[in-house]
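INFO  loader      accepted 1 record
INFO  loader      residues=91
INFO  predictor   begin
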Amino acid sequence: MQNKNFWENYGFVERGKLRKKVLFSIDQPKTPSSLSKELKIHLAEASRALLELSKKGLVECLTPNLLSGRVYGLTKKGKEVLDYIKKIKKN
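INFO  predictor   done
INFO  writer      dumping tokens
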């Protein structure tokens, strides 16, 4: 069984339609601009979703020293939440 923190993270992702889309799209490291193009959303929306997910520890900036063109990827916690969502989606 998952711990309380996992369920809080899962609920956080499920509550945000855009956060869920970003989590699914970032299965491989991407920049905010590539996410915005892929999901057909504004760059500011992609950046905001990444910031929210980052604060929860579900994604991380892989290039923190860059001012632009930052690359984001899933953390272990983010992968666990994504895997669970994919699992329940199959059923």
